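Hey,
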Amino acid sequence: MTGALAGTAAEQVVLVDDAGTPIGTFDKALVHGADTPLHLAFSCYGFDASGRMLLTRRALSKATWPGVWTNACCGHPLPGEDPVDAVARRVRTELGVEARDIRLVLPDFRYRAVDAGGMVEHELCPVFFAELPVELHPDPAEVVSWDWVEPDAFFEAAERTPFLLSPWSVLQAEQLRRRGSAPHATGSTSASRWRRPHSR
């Protein structure tokens, strides 16, 4: 299966079968809809040197789940692109910084979710951790606001107030805890702080 603009300068995503085997490409601008095919993506959770977790609020112009809080960044590997290189590229593009110590923590995560407008996300979406600098320079087309929080606050919010977060981050939080991959913080921050969007 190949998108109408495959082979042109349009950015492509990698389509995969149920086993995760690549089966083609599709134009990224066209792949999401009411019947989105399974495709390759990734999620990255960023931490500063003291162990705080970065949460970002998706720009209001985003096609899916605008304005919700989520992990540091998400993206799609280009055809043939190494996943770690893809994470570094998207962190640079979305957050304006260089990621360090990028490591895979959930290699097999996948999900399907439908937003209020009927747009479907359907992704094989490995999860990575990375270390990030505290001073960010986000692209406003991607991120409207952000906050550094103790990881326990994120996991508490995913359990108690999942409507504040993207559906993939809620599912990822559950798997990270179940597999013992979740970083543990020394303190906790009230999830209610994410109800009020704020920018740096």
